[in-house]
Design goal:
Blueprint: E1 4-5, H1 8-11, E2 32-33, E3 72-74, E4 80-82, H2 87-91, E5 115-120, E6 132-137, E7 141-144, H3 150-156, E8 166-168, H4 174-177, H5 180-188, E9 198-202, H6 205-212, E10 223-227, E11 239-244, E12 249-255, E13 259-260, E14 266-267, E15 277-283, H7 293-298, H8 305-311, E16 316-317, E17 324-325, H9 327-330, E18 339-343, H10 351-355, H11 358-361, H12 368-373, E19 379-382, H13 386-389, H14 392-399, E20 405-408, H15 422-434, E21 467-469, E22 475-479, E23 485-487, H16 497-507, H17 514-523, H18 525-529, H19 569-572, E24 580-585, E25 599-603, E26 609-614, H20 618-626, H21 628-636, E27 638-642, H22 654-664, E28 673-677, H23 679-688, E29 696-700, H24 706-714, H25 746-762, E30 764-771, E31 779-785, E32 788-789, E33 795-796, E34 800-803, H26 811-816, E35 822-826, H27 834-839, H28 845-855, E36 859-863, E37 883-885, E38 890-893, H29 900-907, H30 921-927
Parallel strand pairs: 7-8, 8-9, 9-10, 18-19, 19-20, 20-21, 26-27, 27-28, 28-29, 34-35, 35-36, 36-37
Antiparallel strand pairs: 1-2, 3-4, 5-6, 5-22, 6-7, 11-12, 12-15, 13-14, 15-18, 16-17, 22-23, 24-25, 24-38, 25-26, 30-31, 31-34, 32-33
Length: 930
C-alpha cells in the first residue's frame, strides 16, 4: 500500500459514535506509517487467513491502518474526487465554523430515460419496521421510509446511499424512521465536506429532529422539512405539494385516525403526534408525443439543437421563416405521465379518513376529473399491514382505481420466510450446522403467525384487484414507457437452510467432520464438571490449537488444556434455565453485512431478561433469533435496559423496543420499563416520547455506581440517594467532575426504588455501573446473580457477568471483573493497531484478553469488532485458552461455559479463505456512485 501520513483527526473512518473529545485527548494524535509493507506482525497466527489450509501465516492485508483514501467517486458534474470517511467531521469536532452541511446539488434530467419504484424490503421478514421504497431517476433518488436495518439492506444489495437526495416519511415513528439517525451519520462522513439529504415529513418531524439533536451535533446535517402546519388555501384541504420540478411532482395527503368515544362519535382527542399517516402521490411529467422531422422541415427548421428544444417543450424561431415554431406544431399527442401512490394505512382507525380523501378522489376510475385529464394511477404501493389491507372495505376502495397495479408491501406471513439479509442468514446457518449448541436455528426458518398478522394472507379478494405481494427489490418501471409495469429480474433467488448446508459441504468438504467433533464437547461436558477420583485419567477430546505443542500423559491420553482453571460452582451446578447470553450485534460503528451494532440480550428465563446496549435493529435481531412471537415475548418480559454510553451505535434501537413493548402490554397491568443510561440519553428519550408512548422510567448510570447501589440496597430509601463519588472518575477535582449531577431528584429516587424491585424480580443480588475510559459518561456494567441452594442443600454463589462497553483497558474495569464468571469485553482492533485503539479509546484483542486474565475471569468473550473484520477478527490463537469470539445471534448458556473456548478453533474451517478487509469498505461501496 502507498505510504500514508495524515492527521488522524482528518482521515479517521466514519463512526456513528458521537461524543465530545475523548477522555484522554488522544484523538488528535498524529502518527504516520512510513513502510509500505506495514501490516500485522509476521508471527501473528490468524484465524482469518487466505490460501492453502496448511499455510501458517496469512498474506498481508491491503492495509492495516484506517488512515487511507477510499475509491474515487464520480461527481455529478463530471470529474472525480477522493472519498474518505471522516469521523471528526461527522462528530462536529473538525474545528470548522460551519452551521450545517451542504446539500448535494444535481443537474436534473427532464427527459429521464430510466425511472422506477423499487421495494427495499427492510423489516419485512421480522415485522419490526416498515419497508422502504426507492423512487429512482437518472439523476435523482428518493427513499420513502428509513426503518432500522436500511443501511444493512443497502449494503447487502449494492444500493448506493450517496445518491439519495430526499427521504420522505409516511409516519414519524420508530417503525418508519428508526434507521434515520444511522443513515444521516453515515452520509456525514462521506467525501471532503460530507453529504446530507433533505428529510420530509408531517409537522411531527420537528419532534423527531429535536430528539435526534440530543446526540447528533447541530453541524451534522439535519436538513428536515416539515409540512402540514400551514396549508395553501388554493390547495385541497387534505393535500399539500411538497416538491415540484421538471422531474416529478410529489404531493402529500394527511390521514389521521378516528377513535370512537363512549358516546359512539368520532374524535381525535387521544391523537399523539406520531399517529398521522401520509399518502404520497408521485406524478411524472407527461410524455411528449413523437417528434415529426417532416413537419419541422416544412416549418423551416434545420436539424440541430432546436429539435431538442422542441422535444423539451420550448418554442424556437424558424430558420427560414419569420415565425415561432411551437412544440405542438411538430410533436404528436402527449401521453399523461405515470403516477404512483404510496399508501400507509397503519390501523383500522385510519381507514375512514383514507377513504374520504378529496385529493385521491381525482384518481378514481369513475371520476370526471380523471376522464377529462386522462391521468391514471399506474401503481399503488400499500404499506399497511395485511390485517388492514385484507379488510373488505379496503379491498372495495382499491377497486375504485380501476386497472391499477397494486403492490402489497405490508407485513404478511409469507414474507417472514424470506430472510432480508441473505449474507447474514447464510453465515448464521453455516455456524448452526457446525455448532448448533451455540448457534441455534434462526427464528425465520420456522414461521408462525405474528400477533398482528392475519392468517388468511392468501385470500382471493386481492387478486381480483390486480395486486401482487411485494418481494425484495421488486420494481415497477415508469420510464421508458414501453417497459411500463412490473419487473422481477432483480428479486434475489430464494434459498433454504438445506441449500446453504449443501453449498457449504460442497465448498468445504472437510466441514462434514466438524459437527461430530463439536458434539463430543457437550457429550463430555458432564464428565468435565465432575472431578474424577484421585489417580484416574480423564480422556478429553484433543483440541486443535494451531502452533500449540501436544502435551500428553505417559499412557498417551490427552492432558487438560492449559486452561486448568477450576470450574466455578455456579457453572458446575448450573441448569439450562439459569442464564443465557445472546449476542444481537457484535460490530462497531455502523451496521455491516455480517455484523449488526452492539446489543446483548441476557435471558433469565422465568425471571425475565435484560438488554445490555441496544443498537439499531436490536428488535429485528431478536426476531431473527427467537422468531416473531418469541421476540415479542422476550420484549414483554424485559426487566430493564442498560445503555453504556451515548454513541449512536449503542442506543438507536432503544425507541423501537420501548414502543413495541408499550404496544404489546397496552391494556395489561405492568410497570414502566427501567432504562439505565448516561444522562444525555434521557434528553433523547424524553423528547422522543412526544411521538410514541415509550412507557419507560429513566435512571442515570451515575446513580448506579457500586457505592451508591450497595448503600441503598442495604438501607431503606428515606431521603435522596447521593452517589459516593470520592473513589470514582467523577470525584471532586477530577476532569469528569463537571459531568456529575447533584443529589438525586425525587424522580431519581423513585427510579432507584423501582431498580431495587427489578433486582429482586430478576434474581440479581446486584447490578452496578463502572466508569470506563472512552468518552464522558461511558460505563461498563456488573451483574451478579443471587445465591442459590442446590439439590444437596449446599449454598452456591451466583454467577457474575461483566460487560465493558467501549473502553481502553482500565483499572476500574479490571477490579470490577475480579472472579467474573463471564467477562464480555470490546476488542475493536487487532493487536497490530494499538495506536489507533489508543487514539479512539478502544481496546485490542490482546488487551481485552489481558484484562480478563489479570482479573481472574473464568471465561472471556470478545465483541464490538471493527467492520474491517467482516466475518472473523484477527487474533492469536495462543490467547484463546479461555476466550471466545462473539458472532451475531450466538447464544451462550451458563451450563456451556466449560466447553466454550474449545469450539472456536473448529469454527475457523468456515473462514479459512476469508480476507480481512478495510474498515467500512462495504459502507464506502454502498455510498459510492450508483
Amino acid at each position: 500500500m502507498p505510504q500514508v501520513a495524515a492527521p488522524l483527526r482528518r482521515l479517521l473512518p466514519l463512526s456513528q459514535t458521537l461524543a465530545p473529545a475523548p477522555l484522554l485527548h488522544l484523538s488528535r494524535r498524529l502518527f504516520a506509517f512510513s513502510s509500505p509493507s506495514f501490516g500485522r506482525p509476521s508471527s501473528l497466527l490468524a484465524l482469518a487467513y487466505r490460501g492453502q489450509p496448511g499455510r501458517r501465516h496469512p498474506q498481508p492485508r491491503r492495509g492495516s491502518s484506517t488512515l487511507r483514501k477510499a475509491p474515487k467517486e464520480e461527481m455529478a458534474g463530471g470529474g472525480s474526487k477522493e472519498v474518505a470517511f471522516n469521523r471528526k467531521r461527522a462528530e462536529g469536532n473538525d474545528g470548522r465554523q460551519r452551521g450545517s452541511m451542504e446539500l448535494k446539488t444535481r443537474k436534473l434530467n427532464p427527459v429521464n430515460t430510466t425511472c422506477y419504484v423499487q421495494i427495499l424490503g427492510t423489516g419485512m421478514d421480522t415485522q419490526d419496521t416498515s419497508p422502504s421504497i426507492l423512487l429512482f431517476f437518472d439523476k435523482q433518488r428518493f427513499i420513502f421510509n428509513a426503518g432500522e436495518g436500511l443501511q444493512r439492506f443497502c449494503t447487502e444489495h449494492k444500493i448506493k446511499l450517496s445518491k439519495i437526495d430526499h427521504i420522505f416519511l409516511t409516519r414519524v415513528c420508530s417503525e418508519t424512521a428508526g434507521g434515520l439517525p444511522g443513515l444521516v451519520l453515515t452520509l456525514a462522513g462521506i467525501g471532503d465536506e460530507g453529504m446530507s439529504v433533505n428529510i420530509w415529513g408531517p409537522s411531527d418531524l420537528d419532534f423527531l429532529a429535536g430528539a435526534m439533536k440530543s446526540f447528533i451535533p447541530n453541524r451534522a446535517m439535519l436538513h428536515t422539512h416539515s409540512f402540514g402546519a400551514e396549508r395553501n388555501a388554493s390547495q385541497p384541504k387534505d393535500s399539500v405539494i411538497i416538491l415540484d420540478d421538471e422531474v416529478v411532482r410529489i404531493s402529500a395527503m394527511f390521514v389521521k385516525p378516528k377513535y370512537h368515544n363512549g358516546a359512539g362519535s368520532l374524535n381525535d382527542i387521544d391523537l399523539k403526534p406520531g399517529d398521522t399517516a401520509i399518502v404520497y402521490a408521485c406524478e411524472l411529467p407527461e410524455i411528449k408525443g413523437k417528434f415529426d422531422p417532416a413537419k419541422a422541415a416544412a416549418l423551416g427548421l434545420k436539424p440541430g439543437p432546436k429539435y431538442r428544444e422542441l422535444q423539451l417543450g420550448n418554442s424556437v424561431q424558424s430558420d427560414q421563416f419569420d415565425e415561432m415554431v411551437h412544440p405542438s406544431d411538430v410533436l404528436g399527442p402527449s401521453i399523461p405521465g405515470p403516477i404512483v401512490l404510496l399508501v400507509d394505512c397503519p390501523t383500522q382507525y385510519h381507514m375512514a379518513e383514507l377513504f374520504s380523501l378529496q385529493s385521491l378522489s381525482f384518481f378514481f376510475e369513475e371520476s370526471l376529473d380523471q376522464r377529462e385529464s386522462g391521468k391514471k394511477v399506474n401503481c399503488i404501493i400499500h404499506l399497511g399491514p395485511s390485517s388492514v389491507t385484507k379488510a373488505a372495505d379496503y379491498q372495495n376502495w382499491m377497486k375504485r382505481f380501476g386497472a391499477t397495479q397494486h403492490i402489497m408491501a405490508g407485513h404478511e406471513i409469507k414474507n417472514m420466510e424470506i430472510p432480508i439479509l441473505k449474507g447474514s442468514a447464510r453465515i448464521s446457518s453455516r455456524l448452526n450446522y457446525v455448532c448448533p449448541q451455540l448457534f441455534p436455528s434462526s427464528g425465520f426458518w420456522s414461521v408462525k403467525p405474528a400477533n398482528d398478522v392475519m392468517e388468511n394472507d392468501k385470500g382471493t379478494s386481492s387478486e381480483a384487484c390486480g395486486s401482487v405481494s411485494a418481494q425484495n427489490l421488486l420494481k415497477f418501471h415508469l420510464r421508458p414507457y414501453a417497459q411500463l409495469g412490473l419487473d422481477s429480474a432483480s428479486i434475489p433467488s430464494l434459498f433454504t437452510y438445506k441449500d446453504i448446508v449443501e453449498e457449504l459441504v460442497s465448498e468445504i468438504p472437510e466441514v462434514r467432520e466438524v459437527p461430530e467433533q463439536v458434539r463430543k464437547f457437550w457429550q463430555n461436558n458432564a464428565n468435565i464438571k465432575n472431578i474424577p477420583p484421585a489417580g484416574s485419567r480423564m480422556l478429553i477430546v484433543e483440541e486443535p490449537w494451531i502452533g500449540q505443542k501436544s502435551d500428553k500423559l505417559d499412557d498417551g491420553s490427552q492432558k487438560h488444556p492449559r486452561d486448568n482453571q477450576e470450574i466455578p460452582s455456579c457453572v458446575e451446578d448450573a441448569t439450562r434455565e439459569d442464564m443465557e447470553i445472546t449476542f444481537l450485534g457484535t460490530g462497531s460503528s455502523q451496521p455491516s453485512k455480517y455484523r449488526n451494532v452492539s446489543s446483548i440480550y441476557i435471558n433469565l428465563f422465568a425471571q425475565g431478561g435484560i438488554l445490555v446496549d441496544c443498537g439499531e435493529a436490536t428488535l429485528g435481531q431478536l426476531k431473527r433469533r427467537f422468531g416473531v412471537n418469541g421476540a415479542d415475548e422476550a420484549v414483554k418480559s424485559l426487566r430493564c435496559i442498560w445503555i453504556s454510553h451515548i454513541h449512536a451505535d449503542h442506543h438507536t434501537g432503544l425507541a423501537r423496543v420501548l414502543a413495541l413493548r408499550s404496544k404489546l402490554l397496552r391494556g395489561m397491568p405492568h410497570k414502566p420499563l427501567l432504562v439505565i443510561g448516561p444522562r444525555p440519553l434521557e434528553r433523547f428519550l424524553n423528547a422522543y416520547s412526544t411521538l410514541e408512548d415509550l412507557d419507560m422510567q429513566f435512571l442515570d448510570c451515575r446513580h448506579t455506581l457500586k457505592p451508591s447501589v450497595e448503600a441503598f440496597l442495604n438501607e431503606n430509601i428515606t431521603g435522596p440517594a447521593t452517589p459516593q463519588l470520592e473513589n470514582t472518575m467523577f470525584a471532586p477535582g477530577s476532569r469528569m467532575e463537571n459531568y456529575n449531577r447533584k443529589p438525586a431528584s425525587p424522580r431519581d429516587t423513585t427510579a432507584l426504588a423501582n431498580f431495587k424491585e427489578v433486582l429482586q424480580e430478576s434474581g440479581l443480588e446486584i447490578l452496578y455501573s463502572v466508569p470506563v475510559v472512552h468518552c464522558p459518561q461511558a460505563f461498563g456494567v456488573v451483574l451478579r446473580a443471587s445465591e442459590k441452594v442446590n439439590s444437596a442443600g449446599k449454598a452456591i454463589p451466583g454467577w457474575k457477568v461483566v460487560y465493558s462497553g467501549d473502553t481502553r483497558p482500565c483499572p476500574a474495569l479490571i477490579d470490577a471483573s475480579r472472579d467474573a464468571t463471564v467477562l464480555i469485553h470490546e476488542a475493536t482492533f487487532e493487536d497490530s493497531m494499538k495506536d489507533e485503539a489508543i487514539a479512539r479509546n478502544h481496546s485490542t484483542t490482546k488487551e481485552a484478553i489481558e484484562v480478563g486474565t489479570s482479573a481472574g475471569a473464568y471465561r472471556i468473550i470478545l465483541t464490538h469488532f471493527s467492520q474491517r473484520y467482516p466475518k472473523i477478527p484477527v487474533i492469536e490463537e495462543v490467547d484463546m485458552e479461555k476466550t471466545c469470539i462473539a458472532f451475531d445471534l450466538m447464544s451462550v448458556n451458563l451450563a456451556d461455559l466449560p466447553v466454550l473456548p474449545k469450539v472456536l478453533p473448529h469454527l475457523k474451517v468456515l473462514f479459512k479463505d476469508e480476507l480481512v478487509v478495510e474498515e467500512a469498505d462495504e459502507m464506502q461501496e454502498a455510498a459510492a456512485v450508483y
